[in-house]
């Protein structure tokens, strides 16, 4: 399934289809601009920076990548395995619990942000919910 990042099940609900199309269009804009802005919160993929009210928030490359991915696909749940496959080397000794550690760090750093929340999808992994 290389290249597939979204799907819909039959029968197709027209309202759901519109939501998917809008999300795809939004993602295209994010990919072209390489920035993601939610209120005072801004992520710049070219500079690998996170700013809140113009102030830099220090994040590691892996933290940045995980958060940017999740916020680029709001409400989409990512399994620990999906995140590990994308952001860890194939020969890494890390376990799936390493993802939990990074999510905990991101939650701590951005706990006071009203723009989004990282929620646990029990039995699967995590998703970002834009508020």
How many E strands? 7
Helical/strand content category: alpha+beta
Order of helices and strands: HEEEEHEHHEE
Radius of gyration: 15 Å
Instruction: Detail the poorly predicted runs.
Output: none
Proportion of helical residues: 40-55%
Strand order of the largest sheet: 1-2-3-4
How many helices? The count is 4
Mean pLDDT: 85
Strand residues, percent: 15-25%
Largest sheet data: 4 strands, antiparallel
- Distance linking N and C termini: 31 Å
C-alpha geometry? globular
Explain what this protein looks like in three dimensions.
This protein has helices at 14-33, 61-72, 80-87, 97-109, and strands spanning 35-38, 41-44, 49-52, 55-56, 78-79, 116-121, 125-130. With 131 residues, it is of the alpha+beta class. The strands form 2 sheets. It has a 4-stranded antiparallel sheet with strand order 1-2-3-4. It has a 3-stranded antiparallel sheet with strand order 5-7-6. β2 and β3 form a beta hairpin. The longest helix is centred in the N-terminal third of the chain and has 20 residues, at 14-33. The protein is globular, with a radius of gyration of 15 Å.
């Amino acid at each position: 399934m290389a290249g597939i990042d979204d799907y819909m099940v039959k029968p197709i609900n027209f309202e759901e289809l519109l939501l998917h199309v809008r999300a795809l269009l939004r993602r295209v804009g994010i990919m072209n601009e390489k920035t993601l802005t939610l209120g005072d919160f801004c992520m710049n993929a070219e500079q690998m920076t996170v700013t809140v009210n113009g102030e830099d928030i220090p994040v590691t490359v892996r933290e940045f990548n995980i958060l940017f991915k999740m916020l680029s696909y709001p409400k989409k749940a990512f399994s620990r395995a999906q995140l590990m496959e994308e952001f860890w080397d194939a020969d890494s000794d890390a376990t799936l619990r390493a993802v939990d550690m990074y999510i905990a760090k991101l939650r701590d750093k951005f706990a006071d942000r009203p723009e989004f929340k990282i929620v646990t999808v029990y039995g699967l992994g995590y998703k970002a919910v834009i508020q």
